[in-house]
Amino acid sequence: AQRVTQPEKLLSVFKGAPVELKCNYSYSGSPELFWYVQYSRQRLQLLLRHISRESIKGFTADLNKGETSFHLKKPFAQEEDSAMYYCALSGLGGTSYGKLTFGQGTILTVHP
Amino acid sequence: ETGVTQSPTHLIKTRGQQVTLRCSSQSGHNTVSWYQQALGQGPQFIFQYYREEENGRGNFPPRFSGLQFPNYSSELNVNALELDDSALYLCASSPGLAVNEQYFGPGTRLTVT
Fold first, then answer.
1. What was the pLDDT predicted at B1?
2. Do A44 and B90 make contact, defined as CB atoms within 8 angstroms?
3. CB contact (8 A) between residue B104 and residue A45
4. Is B106 left (phi over 0), alpha (psi -120 to 50) or beta?
5. DSSP for B30-72?
6. Is the pLDDT reported for residue A29 higher than 90?
């Protein structure tokens, strides 16, 4: 069975500090990993995906297949980064393709 | 802002009743996925419709059923409501099956009393 685990429900940092949101997964096969973000009173939206290997709003995430992790990092947090963050996976093929399995989410609060 | 809309915004039902939730997909999108998000949890996949056919189902009982119309809008029906069905129901539409092209709606908040 596929599973996504986000061990921290809450994470607080000060503005300018580095931030790392942890995500571990289990999946038999080739997964595609994503980070989604939900700002206050807004819809769930895609932040980044491991395949594109890009930095969005200063955030990066590297897929570590050995540790089955996909941690989200940002070197200098901003107050506008405060939001709920979800890690999610989908199969790259097969019956899991196009369907997301989400973690429980981490609420990030960046203090001024 | 995306074009995915959901109705109603929220509703309250009694245990045992039936409910229908609606999702209008963004123009040009032929795929709709439904998710249930219980309080404090991440969204959980219910099922997906692709070109009017069910294309995968999560671990939900048969009393959760769906439909996709020729215009690719979709309905989620839940029969014999239980208290645990109280949740935010999200739909996401996409132009195909690729997850990175899924856009989420605002959700319908269902409360079962």
1. 46
2. yes
3. yes
4. alpha
5. -EEEEEEE-TTS--EEEEEEETTEEEEE-S--TTEEEEE-TTS
6. no
pLDDT tens-digit profile of A52-104? 888 899 999 989 999 999 999 999 999 999 999 999 999 877 777 888 999 99
Tokens of B62: 């048969």
CA B80 to chain centre: 17
Residue A73's pLDDT is 97
Closest B-chain CA to A103: B42
Distance CA A111, CA B56 (A): 42
CA distances to A108, B10, B26 from A73, in Å: 12, 35, 32
Alpha-carbon A11 to chain mean position: 13
